[in-house]
Amino acid sequence: MRAYRFIAAIIFGTWLVCGPAQAQKRVALVIGNSAYKSAPKLGNPVNDAGLIGGMLKKAGFDTVDVRQDLSAPEMRKALREFGTRTRDADIAVIYYAGHGMEVDGTNYLIPTDAALEADTDVYDEALPIDRVLVSIEPAKQLRLVILDACRDNPFAKTMKRTVASRAIGRGLAKIEPTTPNTMIAFAAKAGSTASDGDSRNSPFATALAEHLPKPGLDLRKAFGFVRDDVLKSTANKQEPFVYGSLGGDDVPLVPAKPVATGPQANPQSELRRDYELALQLGTRDGWEAFLAQYPEGFYANLAKGQLNKIGAEETRASAEQKAKAAEQEKTRLIAERAQKAEQDKAAAAAKVAEDARIAAEKQKQIEQARAEAAEQQRKIAEAAAAKALAEKQAVEKAKAELAAKQAAEKAEQAAKPAADRQLPEPEQKVAALSPGAASTLSAADLAKAVQSELRRVGCLTSAAEGEWSSAAQRSLTLFNKYAGTQLDVKIASVDALDALKAKPGRVCPLVCNFGFKADGDQCVKITCRAGYRVGEDNECEKVQEKKPVATREESRRRDTDRKQTEAAPSAPQASGQMVCGNAGCRPVAKGCRLGTAKQNHGVTVTTEICN
Prior knowledge:
Number of strands: 17
Helix content: 40-55%
Strand content: 5-15%
Radius of gyration: 53 Å
Strand order of the largest sheet: 2-1-3-7-8-9
Shape: elongated
Number of helices: 15
Distance between the termini: 140 Å
């Protein structure tokens, strides 16, 4: 795991810890006292407080209050405000770096305004450790106090003793917490002193920042690693110690990270976030710390440019101060009526200083312009890289989903059994694309996506193709008609794709082939009962009996039969006809027939004629 070795002035962002552990509320108070008024200034406490504060913020703590060089009233106020925040917290942490001392078995933290001329002054000018424990007592799961205050006590040598029997110990005294789930960590074992080390941070603070933020690492094991590191770095002269006890379950300061299931984060995101926060801080210490963490690469070059800018500003300010001092010296000499030579010398010095100031001002402007140009180039490069990555991912995702859908459609059609039911074209759903991703599709991909959506809403029956054909234009025209839209049918547009995706189901009515009828979202074959068939109007109608149609051969045969019958003599038989006269009506006799005959008066009458 990367070591968190940034300086106190830099707190690079918040490390977001995902998962269920995020529900825990974690608060912290960090105090670093270096500038003591009645004792030599300490070099590391302020740096150590900044390091631990930044580590806790990156570890995802809800609130981290970092205070530096506090007087006694300020320390009491900070503890009082922190006690309010711990009332609804699960984990509460206090880190203190500075002077501490033990008097009669009680440990005290020493504010920067303490004088401690006598041993009894400690009761009024310092804060007992019990006051610190009271402020974290409301926390529900873990109460942790880390004391990097075991340094040599400079007040012990000059402090007056009011009672000879009053004991003033070396380092801090052993302490046993009375509340459960409370741990107190000393930078050095009770009765011994801690080392500030030769670097910017103490060995104890460096080891804390290295091991405490490891996700899922139990605190007891983490402090074990801290102890090993400090012993190694101090040649076994300093041994950190932990007092108090926890339960059987692991108690990590930072919950374990969940296993990543989605796309992994960009490895440059943390570097970029650190750079932007250093840019917001805008100090030499910040940029130097950034370069110590990231010594090479694109962002390192940008950071060096920012350092050049700050150096130019510092040179300008120094030149301006020298010019002001020279001008003041010149005024003083004139006021005291100095000799002309001295006045000329002072005037020349003032002119040289002014020229140096002007040159420094110009150099500052040049470096500032370079830094601004480099920063603008960085933003443009990052935006272009992010846009290209997003477009590439969107296009690849859309192509993959379209290919998967089309493969599934072909497999389903191949496996579909033969039946009397004609099913409509299978619906296709195109992967939902964001407006930015859809706009990056090629013309062929966009045409194919629009045709796939037209198939899904029932307006296109042919397969989706990469060409915007006349069939696709007619299908989009049908969609405009039934959806009430006015989309341009001549081209496949993103607006058309968005309008189609907004429709959850079929828009165009289902059109079935002859012999089939619509049944919900399917075409079903029309089945007629016996004696009926499907007519031209696609409805069942009764089957009409066919009348025989005479052919030329049959007509010849009938004519021949008729001629033979007429030529044959008539056979005597009862004709079944009736003949009527004055005597009444009777049947025509057998062998006779009805015919016409003329009487004497020339009148033609119907009468019975016999052979």
